[in-house]
Amino acid sequence: MQYPRHLYKKAWEWRAQLGTGKTTPAKVAEEYLARIKADKTNSFLTLMEAETKAAATKVNAAKGPLAGIPLAIKDNLVTLGVKTTCASKILENYVPPYTATVVKKLYEAGAVPMGKCNLDEFAMGSSNENSAFGPVLLPQDHARVPGGSSGGSAAAVAGNLAVVALGSDTGGSVRQPASFCGVVGLKPTYGRVSRYGLVAFASSLDQVGPLALDAQDCADLLETISGFDPNDSTSLERKVPEFGKAVEAIRTNSGKRNEFLKSLKVGVPAEFFADGLDPTVKKAVEGAIEALKKSGTKVVPVSLPHSKYALAVYYVVAVSEASANLARFDGVRFGTRVLPNGAQTSLEEMYEATRGTLFGNEVKRRILLGTFALSSGYYDAYYKRACQVRALVAKDFSQCFEKVDVIIGPTTPTVSFERGSKTNDPLAMYLSDIYTVPINLAGIPAVSMPYGTGEKGLPVGLQLIGAPFAEQKLLETVAALEVLHDEGKGA
Amino acid sequence: MNDVVNPAVTRKIAHLARLKLSEGEIERYTLELAKILDFVAQLSEVDVKGVEPAIHGIPLDPRFREDEPKALPEEETKRIVACSEQALYDQYKVPQVIGGE
Question: What predicted TM-score, i.e. pTM, was given to this entire model?
Fold first, then answer.
């Protein structure tokens, strides 16, 4: 199987060429821009040609791992002077007055911004079919979905339209599209990466995450965007490890790799292999487990008994937070206004018409559900109970991490599905995130990497879950598994 | 089927959320919300006695600062106010709030 990492040049490969002067950032940017312009997947909503050119011209290619590297940005991260729509009609013409911390850090690292990527409206969805500006198509098969909500970001990397991309992950929105598109996508520990300038969906779950072709690029991107930010009150003061160096050692030094694999303890949760898991996906994941075992990794069964409730918890907690966060979109301070009776429209009529007309279906459904869960008389039965079960979901994980370093399982129950196949059944769509939402509830890090193939030869995503702040261990495991996969061990 | 949600409840929630919905939407959302709440009802089988509700997955460092107003440079104020479709004298213009007569 050929994944995008086998087909396209990774940042660390471009770096070698840029470092020797074989090519220039401007030439690289031009190449990617030409492909974006010819693209048919609808991955980008706004091109940043002026910013692309300025960054590519002035960047010092020797600056660091991402200097001169084409970057795609999910369109729910604000960018000064560049439209940020959240794929919603309500923000169709919104030009933010500031830049998100993660984007700023990447600008400073010399990354070359190509444009803003399509997503499910306000990051609510699992197929990218909820965008007000049309769906994103899976690069490998245009009849299928790239996953969501960071569908544009994942498709941009998988389609060679950018080398690296930023997404956001509230319930799987980086990992699930990474899985469908055959790329690497990581959700960091809650608080590891600043949320300043990420348009909030569910504040206790949202994290910005990197999407890349392989472990190395993912590590370099994560290292660049991590770190404390005084502008985000939930940002944590933790030292940022040298993720890039750690992965490079595993990738290039077989001695270190073998040593790492022998010292690694991996847990397999039975709950992630139960009914509803496609047999071809199951087989691919078991292939990875087999490869680890053959390399001397200790593999033990673990149990996550409350994870089966995670989706129900999520659809109370996430929508409750969303209903509060999205209250700010009322047509007053930003976004489009709807005045149904012209100058005679009252303030309340303006609020209701603006929100009722310009929010899409899924967004309205979630606002209604969240408003209900928080409303007088229902709060204890829904929101409070969900938060109690959330504590139990998180406790399951912390108990597992007393015994193992990494938990392994599928990212999604199936490979990419056909467009339109789940749009009329919200619950069926939500089930696509059944293995990813528990991680957000627990605030822990997890990564999806391609391993094996399922139905129609489409990529399967392998999910690796770690203890709080164990991103390095996850990325090292991805790097080791990339080698094992390509050597044909257990695939 | 969930008996908590009916069109009257959906209408009330829609008003609380300041969402203008058509009658067709009220009908559809009522059915969909009932289905989702049926799914969520499985949470009632979990024993949560004595469990402290978790607002976050992992403990955070509580961080507070004095709530002091900070003057912004004029150009920044202008940039922020310019995001509104209707601004006047660095203020947001909204429809009349109090009745006119």
Answer: 0.97
